[in-house]
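Dataset card, provenance and construction

Sequences and ligand SMILES were collected as paired inputs. For each pair, a complete structure of the chain with the small molecule in place was predicted and serialized as structure tokens. The example below shows a pair involving S-adenosylmethionine. Curators did not alter the output after generation; any descriptive sentences attached to a record were derived from the structure itself.
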Amino acid sequence: MAADTLCQTPWGAVRLLRYPARRDEPLQAWCSADLLLLEALHELAADGAGILAVNDEHGALAVASGARAVWTDSALAAQALARNLTANERAPVAVTWSVDPPPPTSTVVVLRIPKQLPYFEYQLALLAAATAPETMVLAAGMDKHLSPRVAALLEQYIGPTRRHPGQRKARLFSARRDLRVAAAPPADVAYRCAAAGGELRALPAVFSRDRLDGGSRLLLQVLPQLPAADRVIDLACGNGVLGLAALQQGLARQLLFADESAMAIASARANLVRLFPAALANCDFHHGDGLQDCAWGPAGLILCNPPFHLNHTVDAYAGRRLLAQCARHLAPGGTLCLVANRHLDYGAALRRDFSRISKLAGDSRFTVWRACRA
Ligand SMILES: C[S@@+](CC[C@H](N)C(=O)[O-])C[C@H]1O[C@@H](n2cnc3c(N)ncnc32)[C@H](O)[C@@H]1O
């Protein structure tokens, strides 16, 4: 059954759709953590011009409250926000990417607590530097995703914090900025990957930033079996491990790194500059929804370890969308090499868009597929 799209907020009802969304999308574009934040914000009677919304997933916070600015890592979230602002006849809202500091002049910050704790700490450290004394930071998340350390981290980075009673399976925290409180953001982490040419570093929102993902490990084992190509795409690149390995093994002349996470794109670029500085002139970066709106010409080879989560549950939808985009971006005869969780069946989706599909490798958790464009 399709989810409700009319969200009742203290300012009135707003129409909110997820992005991306399936036909008859069963998931709502907001959750009770968003509603707790909106109710608390309304009680403060804050003027929209002073509100900064952080990690607003589909625009519920900014569309309803009239927030002046959004700070996010996600190109998908920015698309959802833009579409929902238009649908509700609201003016555009400035988006600042996670890799830049938040805009400094907010009087209230409303923040959806991200699932990666180091990223939460990173955001709090930067918010602390950008907010004036007495700025109110409202943070909320769904109970099942909240770390027991949330209140302590808010105390450590922002100032005196209140943990509000849980409501509707969500919880609100409020912290008031106290300039006597100061903490450094968490240290960088990295791992060594010989196949990709050395140490791979990544910013805190990046997938598997401290160890090589098991799926990518399996894909790297079959890389020598793949054909070299003039143009190669590392789709859903994270820290860039697959594209960098293609460079290291002489498979790619020109390379595109694509991801919806601003921190992933920045990390892939930084790893490229450090490990293969001479290749920079032949590489491009696309921060967006897969290869949608990407002008980069047809590729001979696409490497992809696609996202496998939707709202914290394992789901093939996000990955299947990327497959259809790959089919459109491959040159005739080009090859897609995809690694996927074994229990997510990409076989049917691959057969729909590609010819000559084979399994190149498998283990207890992952399968590596090879698919060609006819
Ligand atoms: C399983 S991780 C793989 C990361 C990296 N290739 C690796 O192997 O470590 C999937 C990546 O897909 C990205 N992603 C999710 N949805 C996306 C979309 N619609 N377009 C582009 N990238 C997306 C995530 O940000 C994440 O970096």
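Derived descriptions for this record:
The domain at 189-372 is CATH 3.40.50.150 (Rossmann fold).
Residues 117-130 form the longest helix (14 residues).
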